[in-house]
Predict the structure.
Amino acid sequence: MPVTGPDRNSLASHHAVTASNGLLVDGSRLVVAAWGRPNDDFTTDVPGRLFALDLETAEKTLITPDPLGNLDGLESDGNGGYIVSDYQAGTVMQITASGELVQLRQFGPGTADLAYLPEGNVLLVPHMNESQVSAYDVSDTVR
């Protein structure tokens, strides 16, 4: 869906998106997993949040009201929520449609972009520091 608001180029820089990293188009919204404001070494003083930008108006809506982490991967959970990874902390979390935060797995740093297959509750996770990709059954934790 093309951005048709007053300035097609303003969506990406609108509202100081705090180092957007994971992106997902969800209906009429661009969902953004933000890294946070990076220092020179990519650490952050304030971690990133999950938020959405309306593709038509660029209105920003916080999905996680508090900073969540150095967010990297972002997928739909198939139930109106999202699965996200925190690269630095190595966590994979679900933010349910009701806003509940559920930790799905804990790994080491380097947990990057991911894929989630809701049909089988399969989570595919690249472990950057180990140079491997692994698949996990998360049917016991995804809500």
Summary: Residues 10-137 form a domain with the Neuraminidase fold (CATH 2.120.10.30). The two ends are 29 Å apart (CA to CA).
